[in-house]
């Protein structure tokens, strides 16, 4: 069986912007950062690692035909949208907006502390859908040394579809209209964790938890299919049939890792 091919996407090579109120890294082309070599990967279109200063944020703006989800790492994120949803998201929360035919929303740091979150966009398989909003909560204990499925295709096994919409009413993964699955883990030092992939592609990202760093990443260090990655780093994965992605924590602290299984 052929091995998984890993193409690193190092943190210092990502797009980067410092707007004082917002410090952000872009894994894919976004806003003023444009790189034809990193436009998207399968249905995955945006991974922004955002740090928003206290009492600031993204004012009301509009989207359509994207699946937009926020994975809160630290602090509190206040969400408001044109569907009437108002919610404060905390660590462990995941919020998913299926923009469909169009929504407007704002995302701001809530309270007196900054918020650190991953802003992720994917491309839906079906256009002109009714906009919907979902939130889920996944505790640190749930994610410790295991992969937790936090987002999955609406037709995947175990996904609750429209039955559990809004305000963390549901359990299990948030339903996305894209052909992807998103996993998250908190991997302790010396531990390893495998995940069988269903798609032919994958993407992995190591969350930059130790602090904002414009240069080569410090902090947690993992090995993914033999490739060393540090905080802020990611990698494109090309996966053979029935391939398994193995992540090993080879550093001196807990690593928070996000893995996407893509068609």
Automatic annotation (TrEMBL):
Keyword Nucleotide-binding: no
Cofactor: Fe cation
Keyword check for Zinc: no
Family matches, as SUPFAM superfamilies: RmlC-like cupins
Alphabetical list of InterPro entries matching this protein: Pirin, Pirin_N_dom, RmlC-like_jellyroll, RmlC_Cupin_sf
Annotated keywords: Iron, Metal-binding
Pfam families: Pirin
Gene Ontology molecular functions: metal ion binding
Comment on bound cofactor: Binds 1 Fe cation per subunit.
Domain Pirin N-terminal: 14-121
Positions that bind Fe cation: 61, 63, 105, 107
Family (UniProt): Belongs to the pirin family.
Protein name: RmlC-like cupin domain-containing protein
Organism listed in the record: Lentinula aciculospora
């Amino acid at each position: 069986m052929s091995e998984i091919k890993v193409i690193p996407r190092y943190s210092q090579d990502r797009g980067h912007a410092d707007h004082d109120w917002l410090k952000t890294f872009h894994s894919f082309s976004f806003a003023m950062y444009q790189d034809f070599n990193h436009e998207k990967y399968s249905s995955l279109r945006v991974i922004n690692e955002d740090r928003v200063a206290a009492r600031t944020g993204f004012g009301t703006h509009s989207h359509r035909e994207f699946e937009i989800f926020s994975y809160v790492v630290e602090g509190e994120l206040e969400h408001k949208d044109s569907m009437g949803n108002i919610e404060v998201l905390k660590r462990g929360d995941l919020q998913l907006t299926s923009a469909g035919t169009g929504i407007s929303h704002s995302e701001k740091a809530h309270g007196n502390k900054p918020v650190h979150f991953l802003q992720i966009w994917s491309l839906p398989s079906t256009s002109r859908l009714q906009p919907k909003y979902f939130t889920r909560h996944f505790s640190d204990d749930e994610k410790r040394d295991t992969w937790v499925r936090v987002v999955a295709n609406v037709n995947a096994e175990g996904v609750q579809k429209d039955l559990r919409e809004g305000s963390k009413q549901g359990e299990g993964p948030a339903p996305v209209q894209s052909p992807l699955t998103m996993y998250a883990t908190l991997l302790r030092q010396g531990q390893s964790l495998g995940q069988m992939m269903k798609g032919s592609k994958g993407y992995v990202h190591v969350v930059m938890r130790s602090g904002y760093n414009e240069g080569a990443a410090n902090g947690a260090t993992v090995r993914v299919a033999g490739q060393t990655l540090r905080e802020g780093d990611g990698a494109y994965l090309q996966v053979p049939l029935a391939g398994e992605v193995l992540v090993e924590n080879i550093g001196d602290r807990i690593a928070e890792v996000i893995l996407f299984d893509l068609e």
